[in-house]
From TrEMBL:
Protein name: DNA-binding transcriptional regulator, HxlR family
Database matches in InterPro entries: HTH_HxlR, WH-like_DNA-bd_sf, WH_DNA-bd_sf
Source species, domain of life: Bacteria
One Pfam family, short name: HxlR
This protein's record includes keyword Acetylation: no
Length: 126
C-alpha cells in the first residue's frame, strides 16, 4: 500500500545498484554487526562473521565505504589500528535490517516449501 500524499518512488538504475550492493552476500551482515557494536576493527568483524574470507570482507567494507554507509577511522598510527563504523547516512539502517531479518525468519518455511514445489515441478518437466 502506497502513501497517497506523495508520488510513488520510481525505481531507477541508481536504486537497483545501491540495493544490490547493500543486500549482497555479506553487506547486510557487516552492516548488522556494525549497527550492533557501534565500531569494530577488521579482525573483530572477521570474528563476528567467521564464514567471510579476508578478501570478501575487504571488498565489502570498501563497497560500503564508497556508498557512504561505513566510515573507516584510523584510531592509532603506531601500530596502525583502524575501526569501521556506521556512517551518518547508514544510521537508519538498523531498523530496516531488523525488519528484513524478522520478515525472512517469519517466512523462511514458506520460501523453502515454494522452492521445493518449484524444484519438484522442474524435475518432472525434464
Amino acid at each position: 500500500m502506497h502513501d497517497t500524499t506523495t508520488e510513488p518512488t520510481t525505481i531507477t538504475g541508481a536504486h537497483r545498484e545501491l540495493l544490490d550492493q547493500l543486500l549482497d552476500r555479506w553487506s547486510l551482515e557487516v552492516l548488522d554487526r556494525l549497527c550492533e557494536h557501534g565500531a569494530l576493527r577488521f579482525n573483530g568483524l572477521r570474528r563476528e562473521i567467521p564464514a567471510i574470507t579476508q578478501k570478501s570482507l575487504t571488498a565489502t567494507l570498501r563497497r560500503l565505504e564508497r556508498n557512504g554507509m561505513v566510515e573507516r577511522v584510523v584510531v592509532s598510527d603506531r601500530p596502525v589500528a583502524v575501526e569501521y563504523r556506521i556512517a551518518p547516512v547508514g544510521q537508519g539502517l538498523q531498523d530496516l535490517i531488523d525488519a528484513l531479518l524478522q520478515w525472512s525468519t517469519r517466512h523462511m518455511a514458506d520460501v523453502e516449501a515454494a522452492r521445493e514445489r518449484y524444484d519438484d515441478a522442474e524435475a518432472a518437466r525434464e
